[in-house]
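re: that chain from earlier
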Amino acid sequence: MLQRILARRAEEAKEVHRLADVIDGMVEGVLVIDGDGTVVLANTRAEELLELPRGEDHVGRSLAELTRHPDLHEMVRLVRAEGDWAQPIVQEVSAGATRSLTLQVTASRLTPREDVERRFVLVFHDISSIRRLERMRRDFVANVSHELRTPLAAIGGYTETLLGGAVDDPEKARRFLGIIERHSNRLGRLVDDLLTLSDLELGRTALRRDAQQVSALSAACCETLRAKAETAGVALENAVSADLPPIDADADRLEQALLNLIDNAIKYTPSGGRVRVSARAFTGDPNGAASADTAAHPTWVEIAVADTGLGVPEEDLGRLTERFYRVDKARSREVGGTGLGLAIVKHIVQAHGGRLSIDSVLEKGTTVRMVLPVHGAARGAER
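^ sequence. v structure.
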């Protein structure tokens, strides 16, 4: 009988450990408190979401002592005031001192037992990314509606003016038709960029990847935009060495991305400024931490487009690759941008398994870097 009791206790201990491992491995935060608001159980995820001090045992401490979120304490008060068979209470709570989090908290009462005091369980779901995507979707719908409305309103207004009698005045008719043509072209560019972005995001754009020489690609792009740079009074410098290893890329898509970056740099650089295209090879971390054997066995090539233009505020850097996001809306429309260029560049780079980064200082300039895999290294990594 003693052996059976010991075996049963050992099995129960294993079950408790298994349950603890499952709770600690959950992506949701779980917090169990008693009727006095004292923590009975807290998994690792709950500690992360509520930013509780690491390495401390929070069991036995008051919830009011551990966290100062008033919405959370109000939920606990409501669920404690309900009857035994109360429905769970679900609310969204803003949390995070060091980072902004949106948590969906479900508070419910555990089934009461005679030998255990009443307890309540709080389950935390991190829905920050969902709310962020919803905000981006709302912004996108609002922005694309605004961007489409502007040329459509201009086309409709000038067409109505022409039909109202201006068509009989050759000088006015020519001027109005030129305006209509300009807005029609802008509308066409906008639709083309939207379709390109959609195809890249959905993976419908097949990449014809092959060994591409960065120096030849850079030279071709600089030559294409040199006349525009001269007209704007901007010095365009191609500083890409011919000794770089070939990258594994689709030539057309990569040229589209590089043209977009150089064109942006020229647009937002005042007369007398400079735009410089450079590149380097390295190995190791694609984020830019090169290892000692960089020269011998490079696995990545970084293409950088740097300008001495207006720069971008630090708080706007993280949103530059969002669709239609503009730091200076009036300036962006003045230079003819659609607001989709950097979003397209980002998806082209990601489709190649690379990384895009942007550094900027106000009134000093901006540097955009594309990190792309070396031809042989990329194929070896895929295999």
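The first strand starts at residue 29 and ends at 34.
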